[in-house]
Amino acid sequence: MDIDQLIQQPEGKQLEFKRDLSSPKPLLKTLVAFANTAGGQLIIGISDNGDIVGVDDPLTEEERLANLIADSITPRLVPSIEMVTVEAKTLLIIEVYLSNTRPHWLTALGLEQGVMVRLGSSTRQAGLELIADLQRSVSNQYFDEMPMPELGVDDVDIQAAQQLFADKKQLNQQALLSLKLLTQHQGKVVPTKGAVLLFGKQRSFHFNDAWIQCGRFIGIDRTNIFDHIELYDHLPQAADSILLFLKKHAMRGADFSEIRRKDVWNIPLGILREVVINALVHADYSQRGMPIRVAFYDDRIEVESPGLLLPGMTIEDMKRGTSMIRNPIIARVFRELDLIEQWGSGVKGMFNEAKELGLPEPVIEEIAMRVRVTVWLANAIPVPMPKKGARAQSGAQSGAQSDQPLQTQSLTICRMLEDAPLAANELLLLLGLNSKTGAFKRAIKELMEKSLIEYTIPDKPNSRLQKYRLTEQGLQSLKDNS
């Protein structure tokens, strides 16, 4: 980029301005952060308000800067330092590339406290988990490929995995090794971290932050929460559960007989599905204290996942369709289950779809060691508050449909099953019920007896993987009712 254009740019992940070398420590931290994150350019001789002030005695300052970098940063960092004249004033431009010997740190602070990363236009100290992630990224090691030698094959829910892969392949040991869900370690077969994250029977015990928190807030901030759930589904199934929660609140107040009309949802489901799946696939599950969070406000939906973008990756790269994989095992399983398509196409498609729908561009940000994606709604969906004196309801529509006539609720359930099979808890979520009411049980029984719906696993009616699906007879009944 031309220097005149460069100095007109705002400070960001790969660009920072400094007036002079009077305070070298912040400058050195920035250079370390550039080397560890995605490279960048630091320009000396520009004031805080953007005025070009230049550098006095640039040759001496260049030598001083080179010595400071050599003496203060470990491992040794050798950036490019260039003198450029603008408006008869000399600027020093220090260009740092993403380093192949990262992480770098300030020698005086040591490895544990001196590693810096770039977060937007600011420089932050990296924690131990992020330092480990930087080290893995250089050696082409991946967190989800690491073995868990203390566990055995029985700690992975192979049955659940096979249910998902039923139409794809038989998950024998060779297939599990090929998918890297299992790996050879010190003479025995053990699960990988990816396997436990995807299908672990006790995932939350081994990764206590690998869960999803969903909330519906009143208004446009987090002051008041209206409804929330915590999801511990196997990761490939979590996307559907998240979208069910969003659909539940998108349909509030709508006549369910119209629910299949695209405008009733009032949320861009295609975009949201991409955002949710990206969060599940690319989250940094090595981070502690940061589950995936989905927040539904009146005017937008925000999805946050733990971890910064991978070293060398920027938000602009994402928009252009560039893809880097943090969790190759998780990504491959999602790919084979057709949950994601061509690498990098999702984010680019997300922006294209927003444009086609006339929505504002989604916003991608790195905030406090997290990546947040904001999806704007075409129209605000306020939370309908109970009328004064009315009994408060728990959750979204608790009891709102439990008093429906049996025939009405049966028809509603059939419409819900028209697109895809749903488990009982998923039906309850969409109906806004906290538990199986008498009307709900009678409706399910009647639909089963009339062969309008059926089990997806008929020989195991009590299986926790059990779902209901619409039969051909049920589909015809729907058409007749329409």
TrEMBL record:
Gene3D superfamilies: 3.30.565.60, Schlafen, AAA domain (3.30.950.30). Residues 412-471 form the Filamentation induced by cAMP protein Fic-like C-terminal domain. Pfam families: Fic-like_C, HATPase_c_4, SLFN_AlbA_2. It comes from the Bacteria. Residues 11-126 form the Schlafen AlbA-2 domain. This is Helix-turn-helix domain-containing protein. It comes from Dasania phycosphaerae.
